[in-house]
Design a protein that fits this description.
Number of strands: 2
Strand order of the largest sheet: 1-2
Number of helices: 18
Structural class: mainly alpha
Low-confidence stretches: 1-37, 232-248, 457-462
Distance between the termini: 10 Å
Radius of gyration: 23 Å
Mean pLDDT: 80
Oligomer: single chain
Strand content: under 5%
Largest sheet: 2 strands, antiparallel
Shape: globular
Helix content: over 70%
């Protein structure tokens, strides 16, 4: 029988116009796949986009609650820098283990349901954090455990989002949905910084966890009441969709792709970029609080992330312009990654000159570094779509897992370096070194030409 091959993310090996006719043999005709029957109508897709945008905001608000409150909690519970690093790094221990699992579960039961369940649970953990801290004398162990559970539950978000995009959203709207979600994450970080600074001063650190936990629980409740309650997707249709979009992959094929230089260099660069970003996200509030104790909290908790939103959008705009002007995709990916990892490393290194670093200059350096780091969304983060579109979801989950695992190491190691050297210069030097190493590997071995064609089924249209 003639075989038509499509992947779970919607790519096709020939133009769509060639696939419009039915694919027939002498004995029977294979009907077109029932994709449109499970896609969201445009109005429903717009409502879901708004809800998911708010969800990504709350996701990062909850994620940033501990870094923002870390100094106050360390003072209250007498934590050392090493102990603070263990608590902050605990999130990434959990986060790195549910990336692939989250995508698989979303493909089976629907990404919307996975997001609803996981959000309800991590919202509960967030709201209970202050109570857990006072539950016994083992505060450090309980807080570390709470952060590990938070990471486990939040690790399914982006894989679930990828599953939703491939199953529920038309191809033309997928880029907009993903861009909106990333903007929501930056906005959530910004709101957590602004709201957290005010709450810390006025009501104390527990108020941060209570408010975010309540808002996240409210989001989960609204999703359940307004979107999921009473919605029934026919099981036979769901199964038929999974069968028609199942790619013929096995472990040996995956391992062969891993050995290709563009693929492993992409993994390595993403691991370095994600881990350094997570380290900055975790330790910057503590750096400013200790280095400039008289500075306004809202400034360093808000301004860097306020810069990140337009920077991310401008990065996408610049990338599109370069491609339209005739630059190869490989060149564009490397240019954007050079700005993200190389450019940001320059400004991070400037923070090591403590003798001439004032609060204003430090804030400018950090804001520019954070802004430039968002360019990675147009570099190595989308390179997986160029190289292996047929298994982009699984590979992206694996990349995130590597980044989260490396984040555990860097966050904890940073706490140790601060404790031993009594200087932030060692941390910023380490971040720059990791960034530059990942960048050099990607510039030398990275590419944007597709490498998975040999493992795809041939297409015959009769």
């Amino acid at each position: 029988m003639a075989d038509k091959h499509t992947s779970s993310d919607g790519w096709m090996d020939v133009s769509e116009s060639l696939l419009k006719p039915q694919i027939c043999t002498k004995s029977k005709c294979k009907e077109e796949e029932p994709v449109n029957t499970i896609l969201w109508p445009r109005v429903l897709a717009q409502k879901w986009t708004l809800m998911l945008f708010v969800g990504s905001c709350l996701l990062y608000c909850a994620r940033m609650a501990m870094p923002i409150c870390a100094v106050s909690m360390a003072t209250a519970f007498k934590w050392s820098k090493i102990e603070s690093g263990l608590v902050l790094g605990g999130f990434f221990w959990g986060y790195c283990f549910t990336q692939i699992l989250g995508g698989h579960a979303s493909d089976r039961v629907g990404g919307e349901r996975v997001l609803f369940i996981s959000t309800g649970l991590w919202a509960l953990i967030t709201a209970l954090t202050p109570l857990l801290a006072q539950l016994s004398s083992h505060t450090l162990a309980l807080m570390t455990l709470a952060r590990i559970l938070m990471g486990l539950l939040q690790g399914v978000f982006f894989p679930s989002l990828a599953s939703i995009c491939s199953q529920r959203v038309v191809e033309a709207d997928r880029g907009f949905l993903m861009s909106t979600m990333h903007s929501g994450s930056y906005l959530g970080t910004l709101l957590a910084g602004g709201m957290g600074s005010i709450m810390l001063d006025q009501y104390g650190w527990p108020s941060m966890f209570y408010s975010i936990g309540f808002l996240s629980s409210l989001w989960a409740f609204l999703v359940w009441q307004c979107f999921l309650k009473g919605e029934v997707i026919p099981k036979p249709l769901e199964a038929q969709y999974r069968r028609s979009h199942q790619t013929k992959w096995n472990l040996s094929h995956m391992l062969r792709l891993f050995k290709k230089p563009p693929v492993w260099s992409m993994f390595f660069a993403h691991m370095c970029a994600a881990s350094t970003s997570n380290t900055l996200l975790s330790w910057l509030p503590t750096y400013f609080k200790e280095s400039f104790p008289d500075a306004a909290d809202w400034a360093y908790n808000v301004i860097p992330w306020l810069v990140a939103i337009p920077s991310a959008l401008s990065g996408a705009y610049i990338s599109d312009i370069l491609i339209n002007q005739g630059y190869s995709r490989s060149s564009v990916r490397k240019i954007m990654q050079f700005c993200a990892m190389g450019g940001s490393s320059v400004f991070v290194l400037l923070l090591t000159g403590e003798a001439f670093t004032s609060f204003t200059s430090a804030l400018i350096f950090v804001s520019v570094a954070v802004g430039l780091s968002t360019f990675t969304s147009c570099g190595v983060s989308v390179n997986v779509q160029d190289l292996t579109p047929s298994c982009a979801g699984a590979f992206f989950g694996f990349m995130n897992m590597l980044g989260a695992f490396m984040g555990v190491v860097l966050v904890s190691l940073s706490g140790y370096l601060i404790e031993v050297t009594l200087s932030w210069a060692s941390v910023f030097s380490l971040i720059s070194l990791v960034n530059i190493t990942g960048l050099v590997v990607f510039l030398l071995f990275g590419d944007a030409r597709r490498v998975d064609l040999e493992y795809c089924s041939p297409i015959s249209v009769i």
